[in-house]
Amino acid sequence: MHVQGHIFVVTGGASGLGQQVTKSIIEQGGHVIIMDINSTGANEMVESFGSDKAYSSGSVDVTSEEQVKDAIQNGLCHFKNNNEELFLVGAVICSGIVWPPQSIEGYGPNNQLTSYSQFKHVVTINLLGSYNVAQQVAQVIMNNKPLNQDGERGIIITTSSMLGLDGTLVGYGTSKAGVAGMTLPLARELSNFGIRVMSIAPGPFDTPLARAIPGVEAPVSLFPKRYGQPSEFSDLVLHIINNSMLNGSVIRLDGALRG
Ligand SMILES: NC(=O)c1ccc[n+]([C@@H]2O[C@H](COP(=O)([O-])OP(=O)(O)OC[C@H]3O[C@@H](n4cnc5c(N)ncnc54)[C@H](O)[C@@H]3O)[C@@H](O)[C@H]2O)c1
Predict the structure, then answer these.
(1) Atom of ligand 1 lying closest to residue 160 CA
(2) Catalytic residue, candidates 55, 116, 172, 227
(3) Which GO terms describe its molecular function (predicted)?
């Protein structure tokens, strides 16, 4: 499957890994519907790449069924107005948060433990939001004509985390374990429609999220001894899109670091 001439949804496309994935897809001749709650950042991406390559319908919360549905429909209308031959073939889901907002309190000594409200907030965005986008994109893609002799129609790529696989941070780690865990069941469910599902579990990457708490530094990889670069994440995304045998798996991208 190729990027060239196809439309992808990228969530979290206004910052960090999603921003780089958006750039890389456009550089390869693709078109991107950016979904991000940060409308300013999403609009800046559209200005920088041009509305023939990137589209944003404003602030889109991945946890809202209505907002995601409208963003997909508006984005498809936008691109198909210029070229009827353009099809949505995939989603790269990069939206996410590590910590709940400070307004939601923890419990226990100094409120340091994870309260149900905090847990629910993080799981809702990271896990339910990812599934909301995956399901709605799959629902569109399954009606496409097959793209090749294999009968392939598209791909869903999610972003888990090393911390989800290694069991670190109750809210975040559980949400990312859920994202990793849905990869194979979803790949099985969508296999009859020629839709592949893959997940990437990064270690620390050099994005605003990795520096979310002032004074708290994420560890570097074992080798190379540094943070991952967003381009190393997007290179893997492009490879997954192009390699049809990659399906139903979670790939660690962490320089041998363990959480
Ligand atoms: N950077 C890392 O070290 C690292 C490591 C492992 C996993 N990840 C995962 O990679 C993904 C991308 O992270 P990043 O490092 O690029 O972070 P980032 O903070 O730079 O980007 C995340 C984007 O998600 C958007 N977002 C947050 N909540 C949203 C919502 N409800 N609806 C729509 N958009 C929303 C934000 O506005 C932001 O643009 C996240 O899922 C994160 O958990 C990152």
Answers:
(1) 7
(2) 172
(3) oxidoreductase activity
